[in-house]
């Protein structure tokens, strides 16, 4: 039985000029979290105010992942942006619910739903 975890894979696409879709695959923990943090900071540096994090292929996330999500939320709020999670895997959703993160950072079932909600947030500002 192997105790090796899936390596983290991060793919960034731009569905709109001010929106970055960050698709994360693999374990998000203390060993891999720095990579995600760098990707999110890079997108913010390049003017993306809205970050959509697709966590559907993340089977495990520890407190490092939670901290990265909350830090990104805080940073996007400073520039009147937003963070939305897309379809977190069940184990990840449980962690988000237990820690209260799901009360602060909204989730969407799909990219289209997240984009529509991001559009609504942009329209209100």
TrEMBL record:
Matching PROSITE patterns: STAS
Organismal lineage: Bacteria, Bacillati, Actinomycetota, Actinomycetes, Kitasatosporales
Alphabetical list of InterPro entries matching this protein: Anti-sigma_ant, STAS_dom, STAS_dom_sf
Native organism: Streptomyces avermitilis
UniProt xrefs under Gene3D superfamilies: STAS domain
The protein's name: Anti-sigma factor antagonist
Domain of life, source organism: Bacteria
Residues annotated as domain STAS: 17-118
Family label: Belongs to the anti-sigma-factor antagonist family.
MF annotations from Gene Ontology: anti-sigma factor antagonist activity
């Amino acid at each position: 039985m192997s105790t090796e975890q899936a390596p983290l894979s991060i793919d960034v696409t731009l569905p709109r000029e001010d929106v970055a879709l960050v698709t994360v695959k693999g374990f998000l923990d203390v060993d891999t979290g720095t990579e995600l943090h760098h990707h999110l900071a890079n997108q913010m540096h390049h003017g993306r105010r809205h970050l959509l994090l697709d966590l559907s292929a993340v089977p495990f996330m520890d407190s490092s992942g939670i901290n990265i999500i909350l830090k990104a939320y805080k940073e996007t709020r400073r520039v009147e942006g937003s963070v939305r999670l897309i379809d977190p895997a069940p184990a990840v959703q449980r962690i988000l619910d237990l820690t209260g993160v799901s009360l602060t950072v909204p989730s969407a079932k799909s990219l289209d739903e997240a984009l529509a909600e991001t559009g609504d947030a942009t329209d209100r500002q």
